[in-house]
Amino acid sequence: MKRQAFNPYLPTYEYVPDGEPRVFGERLYVYGSHDRAHGTDYCQNDYVCWSAPVEELGNWRYEGVIFRKTQEPLYNGKDICNLYAPDVVQGKDGRYYLYYSMENTEVISVAVCDTPAGSYEFLGHVHDEEGYEPGSSEGDWIQFDPGVLVDDDGKVYLYSGFNPFFPFKPQRTFVGAYVMELKSDMVTMVGEPKIIMPRQDESLGTHNFFEASSIRKIGDTYYFVYSSQQCVELCYATSRYPDRDFTFRGTIVSNIDVGVDGNTEPRNHGGNNHGGMVQIGDQWYIFYHRPTNQTMFSRQGSAEPITIAPDGSIRQVEMTSCGLNGGPLRGEGVYPAGIVCNLFSKDSKGVNLEDMRESGERERRMPYLTQEGEDVEPAPEQPMEDSMEDSMEVSKEDSDTNTQVHAGTYVTQIQDGSVLGFKYFDIQSIRAIRIRARGTARGVVKVTTDRGNPVIAELPLSISDIESEQWQDVSAEATVEPGVYPLYFTFEGTGELQMQEFELIV
């Protein structure tokens, strides 16, 4: 039996945002930045790679560190140190080229390797035919978040750009998104950069380009995916050409679900967003990330299936817990709270962490995902661990160990009216629901298949101060007709609750 796939798609102790998915051979590889648990800045760790068989997208393998920040010649360990969002393509020579930018460098760097997930070696900085590196001098267009395309005719195109809300680097020029053609050496520019999305287009409103360039070709159409000035969403524009005439088409995904079916309220913690598209078999997916730990410095990758309509359009998709699974999760077994996809406070609203940062607000009393312990660096030979799939096939006693494999991930700061949403489950027959919780809560957790009703289970809670640090199991009978449902866990009562996992008992 294949392992199920979840969101986040990597183990819940791993923080790889800005994910660019690439299929090489029979495996899906994800290249991204590397945040830390409880991070204090973006992208503090070295680049790592994870991969999965294209036939089993829940069976991820840790490939190890593929490039270290100290390998970048400009690295100084101070203001120039963190590695930002990369992309990888295979060149005509069969080798693999890693494009990246480093904090405060304003140039695009390239590393190369003979295998998709081996040890990459620094190759050079993107430069023109005279050897000049764009971005290295005052007044240059800023180079940031590279996306790369090797076209059907063998031509190589590098997409980049940054469009902040204010000129925090006055010595640089911000023009929007642009493209540069590269020679077959993968590092030398051909001609001058071309702007494909200007810094400001009044017709786009808040959907103007911000950062996170990503490019794919589907049939004879080029899809340029980017993060808009809303930060939380990934938008797309299309063209019949790789270097001009791009037209805005809409939003693919938002990490607060704003825009889905007309929704205007955040359904989760939101922060900046970055990702790309990939085709696996006949199905296309969009990869993106969402924040954890009530900060934008600990982000985890998620993915959702998308549909390319006959006219080339993509309808916005919602966040789920089962993105790469090919359908709903099984309606039985143990699931960690780390796969939560919606988090609400009592006022039924999520929160945009970017808004909190700008307003100077340090904390908001709403639930959020976090983990116990420090950042985890798995061993190079480590596979996807004893995954959540395994926990569904072991005894209750063994499930305790499985929870620890997920680095003690849990949802905290659950108060009266807080809602945890998980989507979706194919429930055929369950007789009870169990949660593992701790805290100082007194009240009830109501489990529903909709935002409010019907209630399928009520789990009573009365956790004393003495027991507040100990995880406890609470169960209740459940009644639900067979079908595919989301599950919402709503706490009503006093005190504060933390939730580590839940079980659907058949």
Structural domain tally: 2
- Looking at the overall shape, the CATH architecture of the largest domain is 5 Propeller
State the helix count. Answer: 3
What sort of overall outline do the alpha carbons produce when their principal axes are compared?
Answer: elongated
Q: What is the CATH homologous superfamily assignment of the largest domain?
A: Glycosyl hydrolase domain, family 43
What is the strand content? 35-45%
Proportion of residues in helical segments:
under 10%
CATH names the topology of the largest domain as Tachylectin-2, Chain A
Radius of gyration, in angstroms, nearest whole number: 23 Å
What top-tier CATH class of the largest domain fits best? Mainly Beta
Which stretches are poorly predicted, pLDDT < 50 over at least 5 residues? 381-405
The pLDDT mean sits at 90
Structural class: mainly beta
Please describe the biggest sheet, giving its number of strands, its sense, and whether it closes into a barrel. 6 strands, mixed
Distance between the termini: 19 Å
Number of E-state strands: 33
